[in-house]
From TrEMBL:
CDD domains reported for this sequence: 4HBT
Pfam families for this protein: 4HBT_2 (PF13279)
Protein name according to UniProt: Acyl-CoA thioesterase
Gene3D superfamilies: Hotdog Thioesterase (3.10.129.10)
Organism: Flavobacterium proteolyticum
Length: 139
């Protein structure tokens, strides 16, 4: 199958005083990758999904391998390792222009529905249509 791939330039907003990416910014970059995947590849933009549903991160494992510096272009890759009834285990990797891994890891996302008052959530199975779209990214 295939990976979902996006590129991102390391900007001043991402770095600390030493000129390298401050680690919480990597989590924001990862969230952007997930959001882009849902909109561009799965045809489920957050702007529509979050009217009734969500896809929160429930588990995250990350290893930082190399520093990323101001001005570098990072290639962000995401793929599906395991698809369950209402959750997805995804692998991810960010590489720099020299093809060195900057970070890698796994993220578990759960499909949830909001109750009508929006004060509670519960896991909700993916539709068969959504499962078929997600399966295109299994490696």
């Amino acid at each position: 199958m295939s990976e979902f791939i996006k590129q991102e330039k390391v900007r001043f907003q991402h770095v600390d005083y030493a000129g390298i990416v401050f680690y919480p910014r990597f989590l924001e970059m990862l969230n952007c990758l997930v959001e882009d995947w849902f909109e561009e590849a799965l045809d489920r933009p957050f702007s529509k999904m979050h009217e009734t549903n969500g896809i929160p991160t429930v588990d995250l494992k990350i290893q930082f391998k190399n520093a990323a510096r101001l001005g570098e272009i990072l290639t962000k890759k995401l793929w599906v390792k395991e698809l369950k009834n209402s959750s997805i285990l995804c692998g991810f990797q960010f590489v720099n222009e020299s093809e060195n891994t900057v970070l890698e890891g796994e993220v578990t996302l759960v499909n949830v529905a909001f109750n009508p008052e929006r004060n509670g959530i519960k896991a909700e199975p993916f539709t068969e249509e959504m499962k078929n779209k997600i399966k295109q990214y299994e490696l």
